[in-house]
């Protein structure tokens, strides 16, 4: 059974809780991560979350999100979740927003995370697990930002929108550095 790591406002561990029951209207603060994966053509991988997910089903979002296990590094958790959700491997992991934190609600479920944001590269094409991911697509960064700016229908996850507004300089540097 997968567990999330519960933390205080200073990211100190308070304990763990089963992932399957942690997300409610009273979701405690816990650790997560978010990663934006780019291919060698500098395109960003986007995913549509599975329609069977408890949190934000069917919403489009950044490449991959998840929760590190107790004692697991975020980098190791990223490798694990990217393999599980997308059937891919990543390299050149870079943490760019180490202190990102958010809280948002949808459909009676709250996300409440200390969620460092990372950038990564891949040579792979996604082979998503349908229990996790409904669809994927590649997008140029500037096109993606324009789409998010016009997302009046709320098709994208709120954390993806928040993170994207904070990533401009980091992504520009990352893409210039190349593969």
Notes on the protein architecture:
The protein is of the alpha+beta class and 179 residues long. The protein has one domain (3-177): Nucleoside Triphosphate Pyrophosphohydrolase (Alpha-Beta Complex). 25% of the residues lie in helices and 35% in strands. The protein has 5 helices and 12 strands. It has helices at residues 19-22, 74-86, 141-149, 158-166, 168-177, and strands at residues 3-7, 13-18, 30-31, 33-38, 43-49, 60-61, 64-66, 91-97, 101-106, 109-114, 117-121, 133-140. The protein starts with a strand and ends with a helix. 32% of the residues are buried. The mean pLDDT is 95.
Helix and strand topology:
Elements: E1 3-7, E2 13-18, H1 19-22, E3 30-31, E4 33-38, E5 43-49, E6 60-61, E7 64-66, H2 74-86, E8 91-97, E9 101-106, E10 109-114, E11 117-121, E12 133-140, H3 141-149, H4 158-166, H5 168-177
Parallel strand pairs: 3-10, 4-11
Antiparallel strand pairs: 1-2, 4-7, 5-6, 5-12, 8-11, 9-10
